[in-house]
Amino acid sequence: MQSFRIVVGVDWADEKHAVFLLDQENGNREACEVQQTPEAITDWVASLRRRFSNCQIAVCLEQTRGALIYALMKFEFLTLVPINPRQLARFREAISASEAKDDPDDAELLAELFAKHGERLRAWKPDTEETRLLTLLSEDRRHLVDERTALTNRLKTHLKQYFPQVLELCASLHSQLACALLERWSSLSELQAATDEEIHQLFHDCRCYSQKQRERRLRIIREGIPLTTDRAIVKSRQLLVRAIVLQIKDLNDSLQQYDSQIQSVFHAHSDYDIFHSFPGAGAAMGPRLLCAFGTDRERFCSAMDVQSLSGIAPVTRKSGKSKVVRRRWACNKFLRQTFHEYAAHSIKYSSWARAYYVMMKERTGGHNAALRALAFKWIRILYRCWKDHKLYDESQYLDCLRRRNSPILKHLVANVPED
């Protein structure tokens, strides 16, 4: 990283930020506070521009996204340097044995950490606008899916208390059928009071066209016995179930909008063809894989950088004769989830991935450990295709495995799907 005359440490907060400025040329040190308002931040940055008009200024802070970094990223003369909070905590402990912590002191420590070890830190370089948009959309979509899952679990708990037949009628409680049924008939007595024609019309409106499934569901409804007839329980649960169903329906609508927007941005992206070529990288996983790498080909020096950042690569601790290999916890959790889930998807679409998963599961004895091993291997392939701007070719990779006489081939032959 280039050398900087002016280094600024910012300990950010919700309402105001502690700021420490270090002039490495003359040793001057200044401390101040900046309010978290657009006007205050703009005035502070303008004062830096006036005082140091010919300098590129390094700004060190403990975040990679948020209100402050979004406000500062538009100023070209500021080089933003995100610092991991754990790095700062360890540096604080190295400077002082006490556990004292204060915002102005942390701002000073951020500046000193960069001044003394700047060559070990990496400046933040924003990706293209379309890539950042796709990243935020993908992450937000995942959060909404998690919220829907939490609501679905709550709904399931309440239905088990008075209306468990719904769990047999609907494979998924966030499906169109489940939401429509519970919104119209939120108890067994109400559902049994409906005519066969009304129930069949609901099935038709929800695109449940299988006659066999319709008859099975109707039989469950007609033969169902109430779990409880206590009106206090039934009435209270009905109201709560309807409230949860409305929230799930709103989330379903929002997720459809997110899916549409993500696909629009993903298809227009310059790297769409690369990540779309990977087996199992469909509408959900393709954009997430693209976001994991971005468009800056200089961002990662090797596949190991991606494996470490995502937490897929384990951590090895050696001391003397002892050696411990454990899972990496300090990592980007969304990236780890992305590669872990993609590895699971790829098993259905890639013959060698399925064989490798079987081989690693036999060695490790665990499903998740085998998926992490497969994800570790996929990252190397993804990285090379991304770095070289090449599409993935399954047949080419299989030929490579044969030339190397890879042990995967034994499992590949054993797991050929039957016709």
Short description:
With 419 residues, the chain is an alpha/beta fold. It has 19 helices and seven strands. The chain has three domains: 6-120, 2-Layer Sandwich (Nucleotidyltransferase, domain 5), CATH 3.30.420.40; 131-266, Helix Hairpins, CATH 1.10.287; 274-317 and 330-414, no CATH class.
Description:
The protein is of the alpha/beta class. The protein has three domains: about 5-120, Nucleotidyltransferase, domain 5, CATH 3.30.420; about 130-265, Helix Hairpins (Orthogonal Bundle); about 275-315 and about 330-415, no CATH class. It contains 19 helices and seven strands. The protein has a five-stranded mixed sheet. α5 packs across α13, α7 (about 175-185) runs antiparallel to α11 (about 230-270) and α15 crosses α17. It is globular, with a radius of gyration of 28 Å.
Key phrases:
419 residues, alpha/beta, 19 helices, Nucleotidyltransferase, domain 5, 5-stranded mixed beta sheet, two-stranded antiparallel ribbon, 59% helix
